[in-house]
What does this fold into?
Amino acid sequence: MIKLAMYQVDAFTTELFRGNPAAVVPLDDWLPDRTLQAIAAENNLSETAFIVRPPSAAQAPHVGASAHAPAHWGLRWFTPACEVNLCGHATLAAAWVITHKLAPHLREVAFDTASGVLRVTRGLEFLTMDFPADPPIPAAVPDALVDALGVHIVEYWTGTTMNLARLENRAAVEAALPVGTLDCLEERNLIVTAEDVDYDFVSRMFGPFAGIAEDPVTGSAHCLLAPFWAARLGKHSLSAWQASRRGGAVLCELVGDRVKLSGTCVEFLSGQVSLPNGA
It folds into this structure.
């Protein structure tokens, strides 16, 4: 029997049972894709992050080594249904596990991912991720989407992996109905968003093409939301609230073609995954 450590962390929150839960499984080397997918399906969380240790990760830094030197870890993300190319909350959770459990001497972690090298720095209060911005482009509002959401869409935009619908206000965002795999979405997931009083903007994210009816807090969605709202509000530092049932706060900073996303994590559990030999 193979035993693997596993952590479950609530990301983008300071309170247990809020934010977005992610599982993090550290590995010495990649397991077969079918095994990674099976573990993610068994967890049945919106994301399970698998991280592969760098060769020196288990060793303490040598005398004179900088505690700030980034260590490169492999990182992949799986929903219960498929692998995805970018996930924010599970990256935050993975960085939290590394900097609080596996290598607490580190103040910066670099992840090698399908979306390139992603860096996360540990501050006094927040973990800050450095992600590529994905500025959306305007598009026509699909009639089918208006019917499916059940609320008025003010304007509609498309990004690389997600579409964005701006709604009239926070009440409309909270009233929007989760959508299914509509043809008009062109296999992209959907963000609904509006300007807010308490935060700069609020949002929700529906992920039917990733097998997620609604994601509690979506870091990667803010790669679109940050440039979108920065242009409208005339500011590059933004406070955001994802208005799901669990809810979570994301601090955003647009820096050129990058978005810095900051948040906190709370540990829910640590344990072991048991796999048959040869899995």
Observations:
- The helical segments are 33-43, 88-102, 143-149, 170-175, 222-233.
- The two ends are 9 Å apart (CA to CA).
- The chain has two domains: 2-123+264-275, 137-261.
